[in-house]
Amino acid sequence: MRLAHALLALQAVTSREVAKFVRQGGRFASALVRPLLWLVVFAAGFQNVFGVSIIPPYDTYIPYQVYIVPGLLGMVLLFNGMQSSLAMVYDREMGVMRLLLTAPLPRWYLLFAKLLAGTLLSVLQAYVFLIIAALFGVTVPWMGWLQVLPVLVLGGMMLGALGLLLSVQIRQLENFAGTMNFVIFPMFFLSPALYPLWKLEESGAEIIHFVAQWNPFTHAVEAIRFALYGQFSAMSLSIVVGCLVAFFLLAAWGYDPQRGMLKRTGKPG
């Protein structure tokens, strides 16, 4: 695989994904409206209910709206990663995936190019959300905007790789909504996106607290939270990177017609 050829393929895949995203104005609007509703409406109703103690990375008490910003950034990454898996299922039904995966490049690299393109869109949407949140008076340290970039990329890639893995299992668009209900909402609500995990433990929900600790999305949110305040969460980042590698390898294996799930279904990519 020559470098020039590989870069050309990456540019082509990324350009296609960006062009498709630009044409789908509703997708961009929904990606921002969803977290903004949580920020403006949900936070306004619950800011006097949920008290946030002084816990790392915070060194003072913070408004509830500030606390949920990292979780809502994670929401943007999560939903866009799942949207990417929907696009993969659609492309496979339309035959686009077959054309892509028969290109004279390693199959894993083509999937990696799709993953990078989806992550680029996720990160751009996350920064647009930060800008709009700032307009509503919910701000984070300005240095955090730069420090969080690598974490957003890693988190977006991990959730995008999970979407790739799910797209192996989802054979028809009709099955997508049901599968997403068993993935998106449990991952989001069983995480510190909306409330600290110690509140679960304090309330006696030990099983839920245990599950939340093993939730990859939990560590993506915590890594984002620490990065926004210039701190480094080694454990969370390690889990995010480990899950990214595991999800992507399993997805690449699943898209290999000689070994993966596609062989068992009898349908090529």
Tell me about this structure.
- With 269 residues, this protein is mainly alpha-helical.
- It has one domain.
- It is built from 14 helices and no strands.
- The longest helix is centred in the N-terminal third of the chain and has 31 residues.
Ordered list of secondary-structure elements with their pairings:
Blueprint: H1 3-23, H2 25-46, H3 64-94, H4 96-101, H5 107-135, H6 142-147, H7 149-169, H8 176-181, H9 184-189, H10 197-202, H11 206-213, H12 216-228, H13 234-254, H14 261-265
Mind summarizing the main beta sheet? none
Coarse structural class: mainly alpha
Average of the residue pLDDT scores: 81
- The radius of gyration over CA amounts to 19 Å
Query: Count of DSSP helices?
Result: 14
- Number of spatially distinct domains: 1
Number of strands: 0
Q: Give the terminus-to-terminus CA distance.
A: 21 Å
Shape: globular
| Beta-strand share of residues | under 5%
Approximate helicity band: over 70%
Contiguous runs where pLDDT drops below 50 for at least 5 residues: 260-269
Write out key terms for the chains shown.
disordered C terminus; 75% helix; mainly alpha
Summarize the structure.
The protein is 75% helix and 0% strand. It is mainly alpha-helical and 269 residues long. The chain has one domain.
